[in-house]
Task: structure prediction
Amino acid sequence: MERTLSIIKPDGVSRGLIGEVIKRFEESGIKITAMKMTYLSKKKAEGFYAVHRGKPFFESLTDFIASGPITVMVLEGEDVIQHNRDLMGATNYKEAKPGTIRADFATDIEKNVVHGSDAPETAATEIAYFFSSLEIVG
Ligand code: IDP
Ligand code: MG
Result:
């Protein structure tokens, strides 16, 4: 069993896509073991996306992710990190496979509805950024 962090970004929340995203997770056999609505301050957004500091899109990305409420979830399942990335689709929605969340709903390379951890180490760090172990069920 593996864990990963999923975020429905401010564009997904404001457009009413929370249920749609969760439905796709549940229908594909992924278990949600923690979930909450929250906000990232600009400072916490910069910490979360620290790996992208210095890139041309860093300022805009951290402004965007701090611009409104987000839904954060811990997902659990076999190979769930890759499984979630497959459901999300490519970063650039124009390159995302049809039927993926980003292909179906993203409006912009930045406003691409969802975040998903990309490796076991980042998953562990990112989950701990939002949840204590007591908040994760199962
Ligand atoms: P990922 O979300 O698919 O893992 P990353 O490369 O980790 O993609 O980038 C983090 C986020 O930064 C993306 O989801 C997207 O919102 C934003 N982003 C990535 N590349 C660009 C870009 O070239 N222009 C604008 N925003 C970008
Ligand atoms: Mg990434």
Observations:
- Residues 118 surround magnesium ion (ligand 2) (CB under 6 Å).
- Residues 16 and 114 are 13 Å apart (CA to CA).
- DSSP finds seven helices and four strands in the chain.
- The beta strands are 2-8, 31-38, 70-77, 114-116.
